[in-house]
Amino acid sequence: MAYDENNIFARILRGELPCKKLYEDEFALAFPDIMPQAPIHVLVIPKGKYISIEDFGASATPAEIAGLFRAVSTVAKQVGVAETGFRLISNSGPDSRQSVPHCHVHILGGHQMGISLAPA
Length: 120
Ligand code: 5GP
Fold this sequence. Notes:
Number of helices: 3
Order of helices and strands: HEEEHHEE
Largest sheet: 5 strands, antiparallel
Bound molecules: guanosine-5'-monophosphate
Mean pLDDT: 97
């Protein structure tokens, strides 16, 4: 599957669509999810053109990989969940219901979560 240059996060990265920027560096951008599933729900996306976390892990450079995960820790601290805890989720591919085909991780926190990963 080829990278879709017009996916929503590609358009956010190009500045064609707005987002409430929480953090940005040369490797990553972080902004709140438009439909939050927890009191804190932030998306962290790499700037590189990777379709999913699977694609990212397979093809990104070590610097890009470090950059994304450094950004996660920075953002977790910034939004106040570094100490209280958070869940890091990355949907990858059809079974996960990934809906935007640009690699991203969800930081979810702000309350205690259940453990269910039951099938739909
Ligand atoms: P996925 O389902 O691919 O793991 O997650 C995509 C996430 O992107 C969803 O949680 C959805 O709410 C969020 N999302 C989709 N479009 C936009 C948008 O235009 N702006 C923001 N901030 N979030 C979006």
